[in-house]
Amino acid sequence: MKRTIAVIDFETTGNSPQGGGRATEIAAVLLRDGEIVGQYQSLMNTGAWIPPMIERLTGISNEMLEDAPDAARVMREVAEFTADCGFVAHNASFDRGFWLHELDRAEVSPRVAPEFACTVKLARRLYPESPNCKLGTLARYHRLPDNGRAHRALADAMTTAQLVQRMQRDIGLELVEFLGELSVEHELLLRLQAVARPQWHKAATGYARDLRRHLQDSLV
Questions:
Q1: pTM value?
Q2: 28, 53, 114, 191: which is deepest, by most CB within 10 A?
């Protein structure tokens, strides 16, 4: 079943919510049928202080956040914007952690914590010849468009979305024997990132079987 993908990127004050980090900016880029169909971006005021090192990295200053919308309001908006989507992020454990933490603080936590497909995990399997799996390196490796300053949420989310588009194309070509007419959707990305590349054909076969069965059942 086709499902819109929401590519999420946070800028934050630290490495993890558990260590006291809070979000300073979020972006979501929507992909459907391999095309970018929408985007959302906002700074967000959590009341947290941005350390100088983080300000230099992101270009987001404490002064910029003074007039930013309240974080809870932003999270309610982006949760509505991404409703029913499958989630993807680069180094997904980082963004998923902040996603769940900021939603919880905004009192809009999902009933079931969503699974995030991770473009780092997928790139390690799909592009072992790349020098590394940093987003900037992969963007240069694939000659993706320049979307502006790195470590700003919308620029990074857009680059990640373009990387997902490239991955969907490359995976589709590699697994066409097992997928047939089926496209590379979020559920398949989740399955592929969980296994080594030599096992991808089995994952694709199972995905195709389950999807066709679901489509048949929906017609009954």
A1: 0.95
A2: 28
Identity of the amino acid at 75: M
Residue 81: which of 14, 5, 142, 152 has the closest Cα? 5
Task: Kindly give, in sequence order, each residue whose CB lies less than 8 Å from that of residue 67, ignoring residues fewer than 6 positions away.
Answer: none
Number of H helices, E strands in the chain: 10, 5
Q: How many CA atoms lie within 13 A of 174 on its CB side?
A: 19
Tokens of 104: 């919880």
Q: What is the mean pLDDT of residues 19-48?
A: 96
Residue 81 has a pLDDT of: 97
Instruction: Give exposure, 148-165, as e/b (b: 16+ Cβ within 10 Å).
Output: eebbbbbbbbbbbbbbbb
Bridging pattern class, strands 116-118 and 86-89: parallel
SS3 220: coil
Task: State which H helix or E strand residue 8 sits in.
Answer: strand 5-12
In the sheet that 86-89 helps form, which strands lie side by side, from edge to edge? 35-43, 23-32, 5-12, 86-89, 116-118
Q: Is the dihedral of CA 58, 62, 68, 70 positive or negative?
A: positive
| Portion of the chain with pLDDT greater than 70, in percent | 98
Residue 173 in tokens: 């070509």
Tokens of 120: 């780092």
Q: Which two tokens stand for residue 100?
A: 């769940």
